[in-house]
Amino acid sequence: MPSRYKPSDDLFACTVEGESMNKVIPNGSICLFRKYTAGSRNGRIVLVEHTSIQDPDFGSGYTVKEYQSKKNVEDDQWSHQSIILKPLSYNLEYDDIVIEEDELSDLRVIGVFECVL
């Protein structure tokens, strides 16, 4: 583990397979993630789980993508309109994964990407 990180219960590593994030994460890389507990995820690379996600490379319900949120704001209150999970790939055939408002309850952010190990 890089020296800038101290071992803790909120860090975990997993192998990221596929080419959809190859601008940042090469296929087969072991990546360090921090368990997501709270705070803004916008613009961060995240590991998410969702029942409707079928990763094009492996068909799993998990994916690693850049997180973007579209929000509805009314009377100083906000709610998510949709979540966009963006691939960061040199291969332009990978599409955004859009999770609409009625599907958001099934979305679970598991971790926030820290680095490739």
Keywords:
single chain, 117 residues, mainly beta, Umud Fragment, subunit A, 46% strand, globular
What would you note in describing this structure?
- The model has no long low-confidence stretch (mean pLDDT 88).
- The protein is 0% helix and 46% strand.
- It has a 7-stranded antiparallel β-sheet, with no helix packed on it.
- It is globular and about 45 Å long.
- The protein has 117 residues and is an all-beta fold.
- The protein has a single domain (11-116), classed as Umud Fragment, subunit A, CATH 2.10.109.10.
- The protein has strands at residues 11-16, 29-35, 45-49, 62-74, 77-86, 97-100, 108-116.
- It has no helices and 7 strands.
SSE arrangement, N to C:
EEEEEEE
Gyration radius (Cα, Å) is 15 Å
Task: Determine the number of helices (DSSP H or I, runs of at least 4 residues).
Answer: 0
Low-confidence stretches: none
Count of distinct structural domains: 1
Shape, please? globular
CATH C-level label:
Mainly Beta
CATH topology: Umud Fragment, subunit A
Distance between the termini: 7 Å
Overall SS class: mainly beta
Can you give the helix content as a percent range? under 10%
Task: Please tell me the overall pLDDT.
Answer: 88
CATH homologous superfamily heading: Umud Fragment, subunit A
Q: Profile the largest sheet.
A: 7 strands, antiparallel
In which order are the strands of the major sheet placed? 1-2-7-3-4-5-6
Instruction: Tell me what the CATH architecture is.
Output: Ribbon
Strand residue percentage: over 45%
Number of extended strands: 7
